[in-house]
Amino acid sequence: MYAAALLLAALLGAARADGNVSVQWRQLTFEDTHELVVTPAVEFILTFAPNPAQGVFPIRVWVQADGGDTSRPLLVTARRRIGAWTWQLPYRSGGALLYELERTLCPDDSVDAEKLNDDCDDDDPSLPASGDFSLHVGSSCAAPTRVQLRASFARDWRLPFQSSTPVVTQQGAPRVNYYRWQPGQNNVRLVVDSEDDVCATIAVQNYTCPIAETLEEIEVSTLRMTVIRSGGVQLSVNIQCATDHNGFRPV
Fold this sequence. Notes:
It is built from two helices and 19 strands. The radius of gyration is 21 Å and the shape is globular. The strands form six sheets. The chain has a five-stranded mixed beta sheet with strand order 1-3-11-5-6, with no helix packed on it. Strands 2-12-4-9 form a four-stranded antiparallel beta sheet, with no helix packed on it. 10% of the residues lie in helices and 41% in strands. It is mainly β. It has helices spanning 2-19, 215-221; strands at residues 22-27, 34-38, 42-48, 59-65, 74-80, 83-89, 91-93, 96-98, 100-104, 111-112, 133-139, 145-153, 179-180, 187-193, 200-206, 208-209, 223-227, 230-236, 247-250. The chain has one domain. β7 and β8 form a beta hairpin. It is found in: Membrane. Its main location: membrane. It is a multi-pass membrane protein. Residues 1-17 form the signal peptide.
């Protein structure tokens, strides 16, 4: 009975703590930078709704925090029809502590990797893309955290054949693009050239969700290469899952 009373008291205490959190709902616009102040008492649910013409593009989310620590980080959860993903700020990448990130959300028409059957087909294909998604932003850090965020459309999403695409990336902000195999095409060569003497990792993965974007994720789930000035890799269609979209993503 004593143990039960302690458990009941603990549950009541947790309920009172949750009751002190104010959740603010906001409808935000694309392509604009928005600023929030997040505290343990204030969380935000932010919704984004593109028009039909914009909904065909994948979405990139950029978030920056002005402080915090890894023991009580800012948590950002993105939700859309195909699934949900949570990121934290700050976070460690290699030996660096980063207060900024950019991530590409899985398009609504991509395939959940866990739903692929033995033939690498999706038993439950997604509905046409809509682009609607939401962000849930919260923190348990006692100090207020000033947050800036932006959702934008990845208009350079598709890689053309036999034509170059300029890409600008930095630590914490990988750039994801998509190449779709053309009819009758069995192999391609992916070529990367850079004017900077910076070591970069290029990872290739199937058109599935979630997208591997951190150094830790791409080490276990992608075909990858490291380049400084230039590099190339030969890709064959027989190493990719034969999904309806039949393509791959360089990261």
